[in-house]
Fold this protein.
Amino acid sequence: MARITLNNIRHSYLPNPKSDDDYALQRVHLDWDDGGAYALLGPSGCGKTTLLNIISGLLVPSERQLLFDDKDVTALEPDARNIAQVFQFPVIYDTMTVRDNLSFPLRNRGVDEQVIAQRVTEIAAMLELEPMLDQKAAGLTADNKQKISLGRGLVREDVNVIMFDEPLTVIDPHLKWKLRSKLKELHQKVNRTMIYVTHDQTEALTFADQVVVMNFGQILQVGTPIELFECPTHTFVGHFIGSPGMNVVPASVVDGKVQVAGHVIDTASDLTNLRQGSVEVGVRPEFVRFADVGIAGTVETVMDVGRHTVVKVRLEGIDQIINAIVDEGDSIPDGQVHLQFDAAQTRLYEDGWVVAETQG
Amino acid sequence: MKTSNPRAWFLVLPVILLVAFNALIPLMTVVNYSVQETFGDNLFFWHGIGWFQDVLGSERFHAALGRQFLFTGIILAIEVPLGVAIALAMPRSGPWVPVCLILMAMPLLIPWNVVGAMWNIFTLPDIGLLGYTLNTVLGIEYNMTQSPLAAWMTIVAMDVWHWTSLVVLLAYAGLVSIPDAYYQAAKIDGASKFAVFRHIQLPKMKKVLTIAILLRFMDSFMIYTEPFVLTGGGPGNSTTLLSIDLVKVALGQFDLGPAAAMSLIYFAITLLVSWAFYTAMTKDDQN
């Protein structure tokens, strides 16, 4: 068990990286508390697996260190770090029984057989693997194989962190939900640090207390699921999280007022310190309302997604679609409409990053 | 709804004819010879299972069969571990991969009789590189036309040289198909190098190794050309393997009946061992 610190780590797969583009992982600094449930969320190729491999020790970062409780482990081999990892595809030892699979990490470390037997029984009970303990692991279903992978991490009592690399990829949809809640339950039971890597927002938001959103090899935002939803600090976060994601509309600032498609709108952002970057307005579909006056547009499509309806509106003057969510029961507009944004939930973004909010 | 049409069988006719002419009819001819006696003039007399009894009881056959099993056993015991060891040592990626693969594939491309002739010249005591070096430079007496031990060592070395590559290539194919995650998981689990070999690499190579052993068994059990060119079965009968003996009986002595019976017994043994081995190796997979 340990607190994990990534101290301004940078990594490149090239031997002699020159520009920032050569780095798969830009400067990353993170502090993870002992026993927390964390998720690394981002699209494929965003650097999350690189980050994971650095923590597990399969990769050594090009610059700076990784600390477990202030102890530098950057150069340690994976087995010396006392970590566990569940891979995208179930990794099990085919020729062994489930019991031997679970015992394997302990046997390799020379643990007493009696202790092993006791630990394995304990973990098997926790993972509901007891009925198949003496079966060959090769014949099991994918979800049980993933449980074995996880079990091989859990049997070690002193494991520092358990990492999951998109562990539900090969699991049947109806079992995904089951295994996901099992993981959440396990985290509460064993109280170990767990890091869950995924590109699926539902998996990340349901599992983690703290979600790290990554893209382009850098960390865009670290926050609770609610923070990510309510105050995305980068347009990518707003867009990536939510269904549908945040609307990002090109805007301009004229005479200290924000304009979208020629209309002046109110935002929560403080405009006093703007640099001369390109600006956009971000507002979630939940905070777009239909009104008599406002930004003009035409309704293009209406999608009923169950509890509410998503209305796609094409703005007049600029070629831009805005999603608006209409709650069940409310009337759905048609044809020419006008939109209003909820000022408190509308923010200005400069070069992708959120502009600070007005104080008070 | 009826979807089968018996007339479709006519489409299979060409294949049946082909198989009949190149396999069934020749095989049945052999069966025919094996149960008859002839004194020439195309006159045949029924002989029952007499030839089979003769062959199975003959000391000459026992000796050839024994030599055959010894040879196959030795080369399998050398080629399989050696092939796996070489495959493990080969790089998994990078510019050396094609170099290694081509070097490995080279011996496999050389015709059998050329291999025999090469090794024959290679081992000649007066002018062969190996023969001369051993006899004259190192002072070790080595003449495979006189010493049965030298002859055996030579045919074994030749077969290992010619065919280990096959095991290497198959084992290598099995090795590269193992996803990296297995090695990473093993590292995290603290597995030793031997444990990785025993619990990951070997099980993942099981299927290709089964095929490799099967192919090497069948090929070495039926080997003819290379030892025939190299030693001609000598000195004496010391390297007369089953196929060499069979050709002596069939074409040298022209004893068609015994040769046919011997062929069928030979065929049955090859088939039986292959089947038993394959069944044993794949038994686990079916459960």
About this structure: Chain A touches chain B at residues 56-58, 77-79, 83-85, 87-89, 91, 93-96, 104-105, 108-109, 136, 139, 149, 152-153 (CB under 8 Å). The radius of gyration of chain A is 24 Å. Residues 4-235 of chain A form a domain with the Rossmann fold fold (CATH 3.40.50.300).
